[in-house]
Each structure stands twice: as structure tokens, then as C-alpha cells.
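Entry 14. Two folds queued back to back today. First construct below, sequence then C-alpha cells.
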Amino acid sequence: MAENNLPCWVYRSLRKQEMYLYLAQEDAFDKVPAPLLERFGEPVLVIELELSSERKLAREDVNKVMTHLRIQGYHLQMPPQLQPELYHGNLD
């Protein structure tokens, strides 16, 4: 593992679709505040991966995730904000 790389375990929430919890250590839920864990529900391990500043994540800034993992031991990825497309009639 390169010096700037960071191992990471990603868990999904059974309660909230597309909510993910990244941990700096496997099953280190003691780093996560109790109220957050309660809202998150039963965590399900999705993937173990190695983060680096060169790695792209689908919906998160990898450097932000790595900073949170180093400082607080976890990072919470919230579901995307859905923006409904409203029909405004023909604008021609």
C-alpha cells in the first residue's frame, strides 16, 4: 500500500436507499455517533477498497472522504437530492 493510500470499508443502510457509511477500519462503528448509527440502521458491508487521491468515486470527492476517515474515522454519503423535472409547457 502506498503511503498516501487509505483502506476503507463501505457499508450501505438498510433503512435509507443510497446512504453509505465509509469506515477507516472494518466494523469500527464505535467511531460513529450513536444517533447517526441509529438513523442509519443495520449496516451491510458492500465493499472493501483502497482510496487514493487518484481514485475516482461515483458521487463523492475522494479527498474529502479520505480527510474525514483520517480525522473522525468515518464518512457519511447521503442519498442524492432528486430534482424532479417539471414541465413548463412549450417555450417556443
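Second construct, same run, same settings:
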Amino acid sequence: MQLPIVKPAPIVTTHTEAFRDLFENQCQFRHFQNYLTGLMVLPNKSLANISRCILESADKTNLSRFFSQAPWSKEELTEQRIKYLLTQTVSHRLSAQESYLLLDDTLCEHVGSLFEYVDRHYNHSNHSYPLSHNLVTSHYLSGAVRFPVDLQIYRRYEEITRWSEFVKKYFPDLEIPKQKKERQKLHKLVDQTLLKDPEFQDLHNQFQTKIALAVKLIEQAKNRNLPFTTVLMDSWYLAPDIVATLKEHQLDWVSLLKKNRKLEVNSFVLRDEGGQPITLTGPHIKVEELVPLIPSNAYRKVKLEDKSYWCFTRSLRVPGLGKVRLVISFENPELTGTYAVLVTNRTDWSAKKILATYLQRWPIETFYQDSKGHLGLDKYRMRSTEAIQKHWCLVFVAYSLLHLACLPSSLIPGRGKIPSRPIKTIGEVCRQQGQKLIEDLILLAHDQLQQGQSAAEVFSRLFAKQRKEVPG
């Protein structure tokens, strides 16, 4: 049995009035407050458990209708959230030249296939294909200020087009292989025939790659007037379409580069330890083929805070990207073990500047950890995409409000500088909200006892919903 929640979390009460006009009536607004509170403090984030634990909440059915039928807009809520955060963080943010938009994607894994748009997506961390939703997200970072901006749900081509279904329709005798390479061969064999079907053609036109979704997120961030000048991304998103979009908006970028990417040999000169040019054959050379050829004296030590790196830097050309600045970085002077390859359009930046900038990308990873570990980003049980997307939207709201409590209240004493990092974690603030709700519960029980109610009566009222809804 969990402790009942007698009012919304304090941080929810403090900030949600800014969103009051987005909801049709007080009932919807209270659902909004209650769900945010449940996400922040309850270990079980299901609709049933939130309804069971919040004393004055409606039952699960009403809360479910809040997601599936209530006419509030997740787009309008996202728009208002970002405007509110920018207003609330004016004194904490750095200049646009020191602010970043981060791009990445994450999996929300599930057991069972009843969720709309759920499919098997590749998990690069363990090389598996779990049933999941794949979210492409954007994140804003400016000094200590960091919050999610928006998301797009990625749907695999075969899922969105119902490809297997159409293959069986037109090629009933063909067996669909499970191996990726064999399926790709089958695509080449059958897709031209399938595209003659108007229904399949319509589904085909709805497909968008992760690159196309990332372009949308960049466009949305610019349309919302987020103040930033640099985009940080991993190698998956380093594609000509994204680079062209960034150039159109006059944005800089820093990214990881895959080690099998090709470099244009005639765009740079590599010298040996004696200073003599090294002959490189072919019009192109892969990064992983270049690294063994680089002499050790071509690396320079770069120190960032308390950590040192050994870096090789060159300006050169990469097919599809144009002229870029390349940094190959090892973590030891022996130049052994794994290495990172960074690339940026800023050919005037030093290795230290490029490294320091790319390391600003880490907060999007901690966002995924916090939003899943503390706020239930992947713990939904709704089946329709509309309801699921509203859940994600409210997780973004919960994280954003909690983050406001993570920011320092003043400048660094004696220095007059804006702190570069939050002073609290999301987990700490969640625990503080839970502790405050326990205080509110104790005070309510005390007041009722003072009014003459017996302990049994107070207990019965406070736990009535949980006792009723938990099977005996």
C-alpha cells in the first residue's frame, strides 16, 4: 500500500498556472496537475495507480479519457512550455553563441505488440531488436539550463507500409527472410510492383527517415526562436540533408564521424615524423585506414578541466559534407585503445574548442536516463499513438518543471558568474517533492484528528481508494 497524495506536488502548483488556459475546464486542468505529480513521485506511473493514490483524483476511466478524448493540444502545450522556460531562465542562460541544440534518439521498449506503431528497432548498445517505439528528440542546452524541446516518432518502412502484408498479397509463394541483407534483396525484387498499388503508394509516401525527422526538429527549434548557434549530434545524423539545413539557417555543428567514412586524399597533406609528405593512394581514404599512418609527433596534448586528450587535427574535405575540421582523439599519450573522431564545419576552431563543444552533448543522455528512471518516459500502457504522444509530452513538462528547481538561485559567490551546471539532480528534486507531499499528508491527518475524527476514521478516508481498488 502506497501513501495517498492529498494535493499536487508543490512544484506543479507553482508553475502550472502558466498552462491553465490550454485546458477547457478545471477538471482537465486538475487531471494535468495530478498526472504530473504522479510522474514525479510515484514508482508506478500507470493511470490506475495514479488515480488510486491521489486522494481527490477521478477514477482511471476519467483519467484515460483525458488522454484519448479531451481536446487539449500537445503541440500548444509544448509551445507554451518552451516559452515559459525561456522566460524563467533568462538570468541563467548564456548567449546564443554559447548555446546548443542537441539531436539524438532513444528506444521506449515494451513487452507485447498491442501498442500502436510498436515495432522491432535496433538497439546499438546490445545489438538486439526489442519491441519498442523509437523517439528522435531535440534538447536545448545553455550553461546550467537544459531541457527537452520536441520529439518525432520514427516508424520503420516495413511497419508504416505494412510491407509484409502487401508482399503476401502480390507474391503469396515468396517466403520473407528474417535476415537483413536477404530482406533488402527482396525489397529490390518486389517494391516496384507494390508501388503500383495506390494504397501501398500512399503509405510509402508517409515514410520519413530519422534524418528527415531530425531536419523537422531543427526547423521547429528555429521557428520557436530558441537562442542557439550550434547543433551537436552523433554520427548517425551526420548526413548531407542535415548539413544543408544547418547551412541554410547559418548554424554551426559538431558531430562524431564514423570510422569508415571516407576522406578526400587530395584535400590535405599528411607528413611523417621527419616532416616528409606521406603518399596516400586513391581519391579517398577511410578514417580507420588513416589513423595507423599518422605519426605520434602529429598529436598534441589537450587539457579540459582535469582530463587530458591527445589530438590530431586537420582541415580537409569529406564527400557529402564539404570542407570540415577533423579531430582524432586518444585518451592516453601511447595512442592506444579506442579513439574518437570529431568533425565540424568550423575549420577555424582548435582541437580544444571542438572537444569542449562536443562534450556539451552529454546532457541529452542524462535526460534519457532521468526521464526513464524517474518520470516514466517508457512506462506508459496506453495503446493509441495519440494518447502515448500526450504521455511523452507530459513527461517533457514534468522534467522541465523539475529542472527549474535544479537551477542555482544566484550567481557564483565572489565571482559574479552564472554557474555552468545545475546544483541539483532531477532525482533529488523528485525526492524533495515526495517528502513535501508526505508533510502535507501528515498535516491533513493532524487537522482531521484535531477536529475530533478518530484515527480509524482518518485512516479509512485517506486509504479508501487504495483499499477498494486493490484485490483482496
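Quick look at the second one. The mean pLDDT is 93. Residues 85 and 400 are 8 Å apart (CA to CA).
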